[in-house]
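User: Is it possible to get a 3D structure for a protein together with its bound compound? The compound here is nicotinamide-adenine-dinucleotide. I've pasted both below.
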Amino acid sequence: MEVFVCGASGRMGKLIVERVKEEKDMELAGAVVKEEDVPGFMPDTELEDALKGHKKAIVVDFTEPEATVKHAEIALSMGHNMVIGTTGLTEEEIEKMKNLAYESKASVVLSPNFSLGINVLLKAVELISQKLEGYDADIIEIHHRNKRDRPSGTAIAISQRLVQKADINSIRAGDIFGEHIVMFAGSGEKLEIKHTALGRDCFVSGVIRAIRWIYGLSDGEIHSMEEVLGL
Ligand code: NAD
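Assistant: Yes, that's possible. Here is the predicted structure of the complex:
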């Protein structure tokens, strides 16, 4: 499996590059960065030419929305598969990638959260929400101060699973990796479900799983992490 990692100098990208190098069935074909002339890295202006030399590579992208769309335009139109973790993508941007994948029969795993725990939480809150239909629901998400998007993509995904209309409360503080709390309150009782990322490893492990899952697939579809995990 030949893997390109876009955003290789970022918090997530650095860890993904290290893990891909450790996996025996994977080969790091390119650590792609925004900057020019960084020794050992590939500027994204070279991505298109680099991909021409590969038949069916997997392009992992943890950058920012504009860059992700640019990389998808290059990689998907050439039939390469992608694993995308960038959050804050608009509906239009996702639609654009859907069309690109469909036209070239490339496959994509797109998820705002690659951790097993959050994907199980998504299933659980869907059930709880239906059973507690008349209750109020609130979402609280807490992330490190450098996170750009607000609310988090995960909080938006949680809100889409609820039958109740939920407010999302976002807190940006310190170096917290990621915390999501979903609270249901009715008369005389409250039910809370909470996930805490204790590091970025939970996301990286999910990315590695998604790379293996999507390898060789050519269905022109965008897939979720829940599909990868068989939930
Ligand atoms: P970061 O700011 O540390 O890293 C982003 C990197 O992308 C930076 O190094 C930047 O230089 C690079 N970049 C920007 N434009 C580029 C381009 N055109 N080509 C190549 N590289 C480019 O951020 P981060 O914490 O690593 O997070 C990155 C994204 O992943 C964010 O959207 C974040 O919300 C998301 N994220 C998703 C998950 C998940 O499980 N899906 C987990 C953590 C973070």
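Residues 6-7, 9-13, 32-34, 44, 62-64, 67, 85-88, 111-114, 149, 203 surround nicotinamide-adenine-dinucleotide (CB under 6 Å). The first strand starts at residue 2 and ends at 6.
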